[in-house]
């Protein structure tokens, strides 16, 4: 295949992948719409049409869920909803996950085609368009890798919706034709530095999603405790009722950040300075990207230190995690629009 054919294949794969991600998003919405009127079976009052044995078993599982970080399984959620709802929910979830897997695979084809379209062939990290394409791919891949381990089906609509949105921005405003790597990027350090950076970025992003959900669910529960009108519905049924409890969300957020932080440290404080010295003969240049990457490192270091040593949990920790996510994505994309002096103008 010619370089032009590879570039065309990459562009087509991005379009197909975006459409498939969108269909997965619709499937996730279908799943949660099917559950919006199904309350959690925490006592006999919601067990319409269910046998006493089933109710007791579900209720006991509900009480155990309060002390764990596991999301509700499909059987527990729709135990009292009837066979038709059970089939509809199961079908929607399987379809959504399948479409997400297909979209991620097509996403990878887009990256592969982008790299093979250059002359000579290279890794697909030559400009902001390609870095964003890679970042969204790793967010989706991280979700799929952790899906079964942490029962993250409840996070699907947020992850897929985020990927679709960022891909649209990438294609509309950041797209550039394939070109050879600049001299500064033509190094094996590109692979080491960027792979570690995008892996950490993906894990931090997913952790930011769980931190945001913590704040939303906490607010809903406070409304229920205060007896606000209509507050019980979103807290006891629908989407928020299917995510883990606050303790589980806080613990999952911490685990994701604890994994991502050392990887980010390796990318920002080890491979980055070494590569900068090789390219520009200086380990540190006070470049805006370097400064904001370090600011991000400090915010996440503060989050993990306080979370591990001072019992810094709950709402304050979630807010700090979201501040870290804001600095991360501002450094990733925002610097390019607000700085004219960055040596990282290609990224």
From TrEMBL:
<keyword id="KW-0201">Cytochrome c-type biogenesis</keyword>
<keyword id="KW-0812">Transmembrane</keyword>
<dbReference type="InterPro" id="IPR017562">
    <property type="entry name" value="Cyt_c_biogenesis_CcsA"/>
</dbReference>
<feature type="transmembrane region" description="Helical">
    <location>
        <begin position="154"/>
        <end position="175"/>
    </location>
</feature>
<feature type="transmembrane region" description="Helical">
    <location>
        <begin position="291"/>
        <end position="310"/>
    </location>
</feature>
<feature type="transmembrane region" description="Helical">
    <location>
        <begin position="12"/>
        <end position="30"/>
    </location>
</feature>
<feature type="transmembrane region" description="Helical">
    <location>
        <begin position="128"/>
        <end position="147"/>
    </location>
</feature>
<feature type="transmembrane region" description="Helical">
    <location>
        <begin position="256"/>
        <end position="276"/>
    </location>
</feature>
<protein>
    <submittedName>
        <fullName>C-type cytochrome biogenesis protein CcsB</fullName>
    </submittedName>
</protein>
<dbReference type="InterPro" id="IPR002541">
    <property type="entry name" value="Cyt_c_assembly"/>
</dbReference>
<dbReference type="Pfam" id="PF01578">
    <property type="entry name" value="Cytochrom_C_asm"/>
</dbReference>
<feature type="domain" description="Cytochrome c assembly protein">
    <location>
        <begin position="125"/>
        <end position="339"/>
    </location>
</feature>
<feature type="transmembrane region" description="Helical">
    <location>
        <begin position="95"/>
        <end position="116"/>
    </location>
</feature>
<feature type="transmembrane region" description="Helical">
    <location>
        <begin position="317"/>
        <end position="338"/>
    </location>
</feature>
<keyword id="KW-0472">Membrane</keyword>
<feature type="transmembrane region" description="Helical">
    <location>
        <begin position="187"/>
        <end position="216"/>
    </location>
</feature>
<keyword id="KW-1133">Transmembrane helix</keyword>
<dbReference type="InterPro" id="IPR045062">
    <property type="entry name" value="Cyt_c_biogenesis_CcsA/CcmC"/>
</dbReference>
């Amino acid at each position: 295949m010619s370089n032009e054919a590879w570039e065309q294949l990459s562009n087509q794969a991005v379009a197909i992948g975006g459409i498939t991600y969108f269909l997965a998003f619709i499937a996730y919405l279908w799943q949660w719409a099917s559950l919006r009127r199904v309350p959690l079976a925490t006592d006999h009052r919601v067990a319409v049409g269910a046998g006493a044995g089933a109710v007791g078993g579900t209720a006991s599982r509900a009480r155990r869920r309060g002390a764990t970080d596991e999301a509700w399984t499909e059987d527990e959620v729709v135990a009292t909803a009837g066979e038709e709802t059970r089939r509809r929910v199961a079908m929607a979830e399987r379809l959504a996950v399948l479409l997400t897997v297909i979209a991620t695979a097509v996403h990878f084809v887009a990256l592969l085609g982008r790299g093979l379209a250059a002359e000579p062939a290279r890794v697909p990290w030559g400009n902001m368009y390609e870095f964003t394409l890679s970042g969204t791919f790793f967010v989706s891949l991280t979700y799929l890798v952790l899906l079964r381990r942490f029962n993250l089906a409840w996070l699907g609509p947020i992850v897929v919706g985020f990927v679709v949105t960022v891909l649209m921005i990438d294609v509309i405003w950041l797209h550039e034709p394939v070109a050879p790597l600049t001299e500064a990027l033509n190094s094996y350090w590109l692979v080491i530095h960027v792979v570690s950076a995008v892996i950490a970025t993906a894990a931090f992003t997913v952790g930011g999603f769980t931190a945001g959900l913590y704040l939303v669910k906490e607010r809903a529960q406070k409304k229920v405790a205060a007896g606000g009108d209509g507050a019980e519905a979103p807290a006891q049924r629908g989407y928020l009722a299917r995510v883990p409890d606050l303790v589980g969300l806080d613990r999952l957020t911490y685990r994701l950040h604890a994994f991502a932080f050392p990887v980010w440290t390796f990318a920002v404080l080890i491979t980055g300075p070494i590569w900068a010295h090789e390219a520009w003969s200086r380990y540190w240049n006070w470049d805006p990207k370097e400064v904001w990457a370090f600011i991000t490192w400090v915010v996440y270091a503060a989050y993990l230190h306080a979370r591990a040593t001072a019992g810094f949990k709950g709402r304050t920790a979630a807010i700090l995690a979201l501040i870290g996510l804001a600095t991360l994505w501002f450094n990733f994309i925002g610097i390019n629009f607000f700085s004219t002096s960055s040596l990282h103008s290609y990224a």
